[in-house]
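Hey L., structure's done. Input below.
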Amino acid sequence: MSNRYAAYTRLKLDYPAERILRVTFDRPETYNSVDAETHTQLTHIWRDIDNDPDINAVIVTGAGKAFSAGGDFELIKGLLDNPAARMATWKEAKDLVYNVINCNKPIISAINGVAVGAGLVVGILADVSICGKSARIVDGHTRLGVAAGDVACIIWPLLCGLAKAKYYLLTCKPLSGEEAERIGLVSLCVDDAELQKIALETAQDLATGAQSAIRWTKYALNNWLRVNGPLFDTSTALEILGFAGNEAREGLASHLEKRKPAFPKDCPI
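Output:
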């Protein structure tokens, strides 16, 4: 493993084929939930990948039965109680999305099982997103009591249209892998047993292709995302603002107590 990746201790990194780096969420005991340190490392690794002359393509996946269950409860508790943590996480959340968008190497996600929150950012923002049939994609922001931030507003409407995006982002209804492919939210849905194989084959196709042509095509296509940067910045700021309110506290409490949330019926806005 290159020394440039030595600091990324919260992510499992390996080379499944020549010039291909695989990044694996590796906390299977928590369904690969993202703690504060993992969030920081996931934010910064894309700059090192961008600068790595030995890598032509990247695969992102999860260990065990899940891709990623999103931010862990300790991370969320910190956002509720610590204004400085909220601001730091807001900056990281913005940097994570822009770093993935600006990474010059094609990224392939192999979405296995549950994909939520910070993990879903990379899964759905990948240049080629491949999910297994048993995948369960959920944007859980409003269920937690905060606005749909992260990558939701910048890419869901572009992929599956505004009507579908509003339905799934407002309701937090889960999508199966097959439904996600049907509405255009992901590139492909394949049999679970074939997921890693097809992801690797796709990465090899890209890693052995015309590199300047592939990277310039990615750069040009991602201008669709860059031009919508103000939408993303607004949604992420509103998400972080929500962590200072009572709805987020009730949302977290309901998750911890495994019950339906009882949000206030009135609203100041």
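The chain has a mean pLDDT of 94. The first strand starts at residue 11 and ends at 17.

-- N.
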